[in-house]
Amino acid sequence: MTATVVLVHGAWHGAWCWDLVVGQLRKQAVPVVAIDLPGHGASTEPLTDLHGHGDAVRAALDAIDGPVVLVGHSYGGAAITDAGTHPSVHHLVYLTAFSLDAHESIIANDLPDDERAELADAIEFNEDGTIVVDPARAGDIFYADCEPATVATYVSKLVPEGAAGFSQLPRAVAWRERPSTYVVCTEDRAIAPALQRQLAARCNDVIEWPTSHSPFAARPELVSELLVTLARTLEP
Question: Which domains are seen in the chain, by residue range?
């Protein structure tokens, strides 16, 4: 039985960032769902926090019959950690993502300094409780190995992110209860490879790709090949 792939985007993004991967999975007849977290993409709901994101992922999982490969990119890794103990989830994929432990948040943890100076210098905290990324720098930070037209399109779709989720602890630690794969992106300018490798050590399998923070845009074939393999080898 082929599992359904559920894709969870990272901060500032939306389901749109997975479009190239979704297209390739559908060509391979792999069922796939890319969700918009509240306040992102096509969602008309207000911005929320990590627990709200976990609830949104669980709601999406409730609507799916059969086993699921649950994928989180970047901040989305925290959301799938929170939601991934759902009974339909048979495998987790952390794509340069935060596989947090129970006592950790994205900004407060025992992990080594990730040295992500480029991203840290490019974000702004607003009085309304949101964080935005300087659009003049977002292309180099998130999509350094993408075509210029792709960079322009993706940067234009970025939205403010609620700051609250960055300081919250996950309510569950899914990677302790489900098989998991971590993809380290060695040219990432948003999450340093050294930090990724520390996070990856928590997972069952680790893969390294020579890509930027956004392989779904730069190398969608790598992402889709991995997910097709996982989806087709899982047993319900």
Answer: 4-103+164-233 (3.40.50.1820)
